[in-house]
Amino acid sequence: LYVADGTTNASLPKGVTPEELTLAQAVELLAERAARGPAKPAGRRGKAAKRAAAPATKAAPKRAKAKPAAKKKSAKKSG
Length: 79
Hints:
The chain is of the alpha+beta class. It is 27% helix and 8% strand. The protein contains 2 helices and 2 strands; from the N terminus they run E-E-H-H.
């Protein structure tokens, strides 16, 4: 649950119901949330995000080039 003033949304603290919240408390929650600034965008998650967050000190391991499959020799039939 949250309170909103039209531009800012602030989550209610755990254990507080909307019925218990006073106007002064709601204004205070909104002011605290506005002071923190906008929320960061969620962005992509998963392996790509983890790689981007990894420290840049390690060099990325080089991948070996794929070798073409060996051709099978066909057995000659004598006949």
